[in-house]
Amino acid sequence: MGERKGVNKYYPPDFNPEKHGSLNRYHNSHPLRERARKLSQGILIIRFEMPYNIWCDGCKNHIGMGVRYNAEKKKVGNYYTTPIYRFRMKCHLCVNYIEMQTDPANCDYVIVSGAQRKEERWDMEDNEQVLTTEHEKKQKLETDAMFRLEHGEADRSTLKKALPTLSHIQEAQSAWKDDFALNSMLRKRFREKKKAMQEEEERDQALQAKASLAIPLVPETEDDRKLAALLKFHTLDSYEDKQKLKRTEIISRSWFSSTPGPRTGSSKAGSVLKKLAQNRRCAPVGSPITVEDLGIVRRRSREALENLRLAAETPKPGEPWVPEGNTQDRPASPPDGSPETAETPRSRGPPGQAGKRQDRPRSPPGPSQEAAASQDTPHPGTLSSSLVADYSDSESE
Questions:
Q1: Taking the alpha carbons of 211, 214, 220, 225 in that order, is the dihedral positive or negative?
Q2: Residue 104 to residue 132: CA distance in whole angstroms
Q3: How far is CA 19 from the centre of its chain?
Q4: Quick one: pLDDT at residue 339?
Q5: Most buried of the four, 41, 179, 270, 331, by CB within 10 Å?
Q6: What confidence tens digit (pLDDT) does each residue in 202-224 have?
Q7: Could you tell me which of 371, 353, 373, 356 has the C-alpha nearest to residue 310?
Q8: Would you say the pTM of this structure is higher than 0.85?
Q9: Which of 44, 50, 43, 96 is CA-nearest to residue 69?
Q10: Furthest C-alpha separation in the chain
């Protein structure tokens, strides 16, 4: 401390080494500065460290081992030639002063006043530690030859008992003697453990991202694996039962859709086919299927329409012929529900040709005209909404 403070000192002009000797004597100060302010009383200020745990008598607080204080060190006696020192310090939590002193006989510190020791001592003999030889025993060993002989025999018997333990300790120490190999083994183990920890952390992060978890995951144990192996998650119905139920629903379902809403082209076609099937089911068995049975009406050209009109106006055999203007004397339609010939479509020719057609002689009805009339007359059992096939392009005017 003094040497550190004496470096790079300022020497004043009136400093005389022969007269003053040193800068401390020139300034009339001690090399230890404030630590030596009570040196005239035999007290030196030192930095004292608490040797064990204690409780302060002033504030009843616990003071742990290793707490440091500025203590006043003073010599109070000797144990043979070993001096006994006393330390006085102030508690950092209150105004109480604690005094402790050395105990060279037991290699320990003793509390004189101001505190109580936390008892954590043990018997060195019970703990199989090396015991210190007492002073009376030392004197007896030096003066009594027989006691020294008996003590030597006891020491040799103790050595024989402890020899296997000592040899085992020596073998263990020799096995760990190679520092490089030991360091390499420790570093290798550390790398393996670090790699395993990184892999586990990556798995946990992947699981958290997959399950959207924000909680930390604890490491799994063997009990967790056994419990997870005992659990089974399955549905109430098997795959075969589900397939069987699905097939049953498909078989029992209607072919035609009954869902309300806008109909598509497929639904319209299905309804038409259904009606055609019902119409055919209602038709007589022996009758041949005609175009009218299928609900198809062919559009004729103007000449064909004119022939149909003339055939409708021509009276049938056995009925009187009535002119076109005299509609009052025309016989009524039969009550059996046959179609009237008067409702046949008129020709779409220009109005100037109407008179010419009226002046045209009407031929008696023949079998061809009756067949055409029967074909153009709608069948009473046909559907109200029938399909229409347009053949106007094929039969040009």
A1: negative
A2: 11
A3: 87
A4: 42
A5: 270
A6: 999 998 999 888 888 888 888 88
A7: 373
A8: no
A9: 50
A10: 182
